[in-house]
Amino acid sequence: MTESYPYTQRVAALRDEMIKANLDAYLLPTSDAFQSEYLPPESRHMEWLCGFSGENGMVVVTRDKAATFVDGRFTVQISKQAPADIFQYCHINDYPPARWICETLGADCRVGIDGYLHSAGWVDQARATLAEDGIELIDHQDNLVNRIWKDRPDGSGQPIILLETAGQSSIDKRLQIAEILKQRRCDALLITHPECSNWLLNIRGRDIPCTPVVMSYALLWQDGAVDFFVDTSKLPEGFGYHVGEGVNVYGLEQVEDVLTGLSGKTVHLDRSETPSRLLQRVVESGASLKEGKDPCLLAKARKNPVELEGFRRAHIRDGIAMCQFLAWLESEIAAGNAHDEATLADKVEALREDQALYIEPSFETISSFGPNAAMCHYNHKYNTPRAMGLDGVYLLDSGGQYLDGTTDVTRTIKVGEVTEEFKKMCTLVLKGHIGLASCRFPAKTTGLQLDMSARLPLWMEGYDYDHGTGHGVGHCLGVHEFPGRFSNRVSSEPLEAGMVITIEPGYYRADQWGVRHENQYEVVAVDCGGDREMLGLRHMTFVPFDTRLLDRSLLTESEINWLNDYHQQVYQNMTDALNDQNRFWLKQACQAI
Amino acid sequence: MTESYPYTQRVAALRDEMIKANLDAYLLPTSDAFQSEYLPPESRHMEWLCGFSGENGMVVVTRDKAATFVDGRFTVQISKQAPADIFQYCHINDYPPARWICETLGADCRVGIDGYLHSAGWVDQARATLAEDGIELIDHQDNLVNRIWKDRPDGSGQPIILLETAGQSSIDKRLQIAEILKQRRCDALLITHPECSNWLLNIRGRDIPCTPVVMSYALLWQDGAVDFFVDTSKLPEGFGYHVGEGVNVYGLEQVEDVLTGLSGKTVHLDRSETPSRLLQRVVESGASLKEGKDPCLLAKARKNPVELEGFRRAHIRDGIAMCQFLAWLESEIAAGNAHDEATLADKVEALREDQALYIEPSFETISSFGPNAAMCHYNHKYNTPRAMGLDGVYLLDSGGQYLDGTTDVTRTIKVGEVTEEFKKMCTLVLKGHIGLASCRFPAKTTGLQLDMSARLPLWMEGYDYDHGTGHGVGHCLGVHEFPGRFSNRVSSEPLEAGMVITIEPGYYRADQWGVRHENQYEVVAVDCGGDREMLGLRHMTFVPFDTRLLDRSLLTESEINWLNDYHQQVYQNMTDALNDQNRFWLKQACQAI
Predict the structure, then answer these.
(1) B513 CA to chain A: closest CA distance, Å?
(2) Side-by-side strand order, sheet with B519-526
(3) Any CB–CB contact under 8 A between B584 and chain A?
(4) How close, in Å, is residue B128 to chain A by CA atoms?
(5) What DSSP string describes B89-157?
(6) Which of A410, B73, B91, B259 could form a disulfide with B281 if both were Cys (CB 3.0 to 4.6 A apart)?
């Protein structure tokens, strides 16, 4: 049972603020004002209030009740983190917050939110649902938790990084997007996602974990000028020269004022991404809206040659760290030194830190033995880390942010005895990986169309996995990037040359073990000799797969050739950078099967 | 140059009627009041007015101009059929009728249509486009062409067929759909597609070519009762007993009156399928609309065991006719008897006619030699049929409507010498067919997800085809049935056990030759031994593929096994029904490769 203190006091203090603000309930999400995937400490309002530190949830506090809402990935975690005597637990899809509020409160009640923490799209929908029961949703101007969170951390205060590896000047990028604005007859584009504004200005930052961005908004005008909203204390020397002409810097707190002055303009924005408060200000200004995806998203997903070259170099260095880790792990097993999931995660991170241009992990490392590997979203930090020696396999899913690229790689590694059944499943998953990696496909093909090629070997035997097959990867930006992906869910954005995407099929045997094989690929034009222009995938990752876990008899000749060819490339690219002991390990690991 | 007479006179007569009706233009589509894929003679208004007999087009006549609008499939055909000195030709997508009208007429003009011939969805859109230029779209109550088309044929007058092979009583079907209406809180369902009302009442008809339905509308009530609108002279003896209780028959002309009386009811209908006139009457009645796909569509696509067994038997008989044809063709070639595309199409139809329960062809036969086979929508009726002897291959895409099922099969047949390049492409297409036919996949998988498996062998060599991979097939109903299909276009309806779908990948070398290999499959549950419930495909078609056109070295062992196993099944199922000569041919054709 989670200790209720200090949460009892915090909820009581929040209720006092609710009374002062004439609110009957207050709703908080796990989100910040920038829709960040990974939250900085000062934006962990929900965690501060109820203890939950996961990535997707909401908490609602009324005058006498409270409830948390998370999806199936986090049911175990929330039971350990949020005290059940204060917070009723609800499944966010089966019993969403708006329904809970309608069933808990009566008509004429007032529910407060912080309009920065929700997209306008979400607020529209929640407001409509609550209105059906006569309940009002109110964007209360101050975040009530900020008033009572006495030791709330300050922001990072870290200066902006001027990125030298972008391959295209900020002015070029701004004119390129401005051209799209002209075509769409818009005066300005409201950019609320820091990854887009950071891409546009060729800058990065250290404000949140795992994604090297500076929190900021931007308003790009049809002539390529930008109003840039950021904590101005983070501006480094040379910023103006670096970003080029036409960048007007404002404090973050000025964004609402500037938006209120957009009267008569047509503003391009995405309701499903824009914080409700900011959309509200644009609407109040009298500006016309042109709704649609931020065109920066597609432009930044199409990597330029310099970015792609950076990616490839980053993967060489990342591969060295991974090979060092795998060689070390094997020697530790041989020496009988037992480590746990936490020390292994720390070790691989430490080895990446030794590599040039490394910034930070690109996501929270999944370091999992045996049954823990059967949970796709396992995090040893919320459990007692499992020790080596009990299981046959170890699954490591990790990656790094480098100034010249971003990596994400998963290997399933033999650390004990495994069954023939395990080998079979491990081999089927690899067959799927190879199947998709080998595909050639015409322009306009979507990841939804290709997804099945990674699942088919499992399907033929009656198995599947319940996650996507791969995601786009940003260039020294978010490791999960729209729109490139391989997924069995509807996705209408075609793959294009220059996109960087992972392939990561898996299979999970609950309470026993999990398998996942992940490499990163770039989409490239290939000449197949036919009458169509075709695309294909070229791997960026250089880390051996553990061939000891495979059943060779289940592989076709062309799959064996693919694997042997891959390992030959890994050996050639890694061997010179490793010391003798590691090189010896690499030679074994890359042997043809 | 097409002869202008009699079209000059017809257009002049139409203009006289336009003046009487105070209309500045009149617009006609290739469509009837039931959105039929194949039109009966009395509904060929556009053909009567301008000569065009293709499947998708529109014609607009103003006081002094006229234009036709068709898509790329029909550009050659319209140039041969519609006299260019009267009708300007426009591409229906690049220069659609509404834009042509706006550019041709001024504000305050009035454009007439027959509101039965257009879906309400189309009218909404066209009306909005024209309104932007101040032009009014008017559903003129009488079809103006009917007034001047003196020798317009009567309807078929053919009696309704009482279908004994439906496998589920009409009352059962009506209660099943009524249950859906209850869940959706609707009082009634407006069924405007004859395939749905014919399915619901277990009846068929002979009103249009290729699809054995009686033209009719129906209004299904929440208690399972039906108001059925049909030419009552077509009712056969025993109709009431056959359809069971609760079927109230009205004349077709009464439908508008009945709909006008729906005040206070909630009516389920599909705006994109319902004739504009009928939707208008429902709206005028004051009824509430519940818009969505007709639930009969999905129910009839999931075939019951009796329908599936009927399908299988129909395919055995259809296979016999096809084997007789292929054996005859080979002997004619050996004898040096040259036939043309028309006589071959007639021959295969005549052989089908000899089979029990045969009704009619299920679509217009594609009978094409050499370069004509490179045109997917080729029809020898609109060309000089090409004769045998000039080409290496003959492509035959044909099928039959039987009282117990519907067939659709394509074979590419050697009739002369072919190149190695042809064999390669022919083999790649078959590899794709086998790849998709062999797939196993979990529930909720869509045809969009599976489509690539039929294209991948072509993709790997840089080729593709520009049509869908397969379509659903109705049970003694339309050969193109929603929602089952394999397609690279967005499709979110999952495949379900009991659906019947074709697989028909192809490859087309313009001006030289075409390849297509088509079988029909049923979606079946398969036990793969894993931990998921899986579906697969079981072939219904029993016709040999021409193995002389294949390059065996391009096939994998499992593909060769699939083909040899298929031919063994064809031989076993066909051999007893054939005479000695045909059996000898079959044995050769089914030999293992």
Answers:
(1) 15
(2) B441-442, B534-539, B519-526, B500-503, B470-472, B481-486
(3) no
(4) 20
(5) EEETTTS-HHHHHHHHS-TT-EEEE-TTSSBHHHHHHHHHHHHHTTPEEEE-SS-HHHHH-TTPPP---
(6) B259
Report the amino acid identity of residue A446: T
d(CA A305, CA B174): 62
**Domains in chain B, please, with CATH?**
7-148 (3.40.350.10), 161-296 (3.40.350.10), 305-589 (3.90.230.10)
Contact between A459 and B534 using a beta-carbon 8 Å cutoff: yes
0.95 surpassed by complex ipTM: no
Helical axes A120-132 vs A97-104, angle rounded to 10°: 30
Residues 6+ apart with CB under 8 A from B332: B339, B388
| CA A25/CA A336 separation, integer angstroms | 56
Q: Which helix (H) or strand (E) holds B435?
A: helix B420-437
Contact (CB<8Å) B529/A461: yes
Residues of A in contact with B458 (CB under 8 A): 530
User: Which residues, numbered 412 to 471 in chain A, qualify as contacts with chain B under a Cβ-Cβ cut-off of 8 Å?
Assistant: 439-442, 445, 448-453, 456, 458-464
Comparing C-alpha atoms, which of B192, B198, B215, B219 is closest to residue B273?
Answer: B192
Nearest-CA distance B317 → chain A (Å):
32
**Shortest Cα distance, chain A CAs vs residue B186, angstroms:** 21
* A456-494 exposure pattern, b = at least 16 Cβ within 10 A, e = fewer: bbbbbbbbbbeebbbbbbbbbbbbbbbbbbbbbeebebb
- Assess contact for B361 and B407: CB atoms under 8 A: no
Kind and range of the H or E run holding B503: strand B500-503
Looking at residue B2, its pLDDT comes to: 60
Instruction: Report d(CA B544, CA B558) in Å as an integer.
Output: 18
Q: Dig out the tokens for A340 from the structure.
A: 């746990």
Closest partner residue to B459 among A442, A451, A490, by Cβ? A442
A462 → closest Cβ in B450, B488, B529? B529
How is residue B387 annotated by DSSP?
B
CB contact under 8 A, A531 and B462: yes
Q: pLDDT of B502-550, one tens digit each?
A: 999 999 999 999 999 999 999 999 999 999 999 999 999 999 999 999 9
When the pLDDT of each residue in chain B is averaged and rounded to a whole number, the result is 96
Nearest CA to CA, how far is B301 from chain A (Å)? 23
Best CA proximity match to B323, nearest among B45, B6, B13, B590: B590
Residues B474-511: tens digit of each pLDDT: 999 999 999 999 998 867 789 999 999 999 999 999 99
The A residues from 505 to 524 touching B (CB cutoff 8 Å) are none
**B145, B88, B89, B152: which is closest to B112 by C-alpha?**
B145
The mean pLDDT value of chain A amounts to 96
Question: CB B439 to CB A448 under 8 A?
Answer: no
How many pairs of residues across A and B have Cβ atoms under 8 Å apart? 84
What residues 528-557 of chain A have any CB closer than 8 A to a CB of chain B?
528-532, 534, 556
Is the CB of A531 less than 8 angstroms away from the CB of B463? yes
pLDDT at B1 over 60: no
Query: Residue by residue, what is the 3-state secondary structure of B260-287?
Result: HCCCCCEEEECCCCCEHHHHHHHHHHCC
Q: Which residue of A has its CA nearest to B507?
A: A531
Looking only at the bridges linking them, the beta strands covering B519-526 and B534-539 are antiparallel
**Dihedral sign (CA B25, B29, B32, B35):** negative
Give the residue carrying structure tokens 């042809």.
B422
> What are the CA-CA distances from residue A326 to residues A75, A213, A319, A386, A539 (Å)?
33, 30, 10, 18, 20
Residue by residue, DSSP assigns B286-332 as TPEEEE---HHHHHHHS--HHHHHHHHHHHHHHHHHHHHHHHHHHHH
pTM for the full predicted model: 0.94
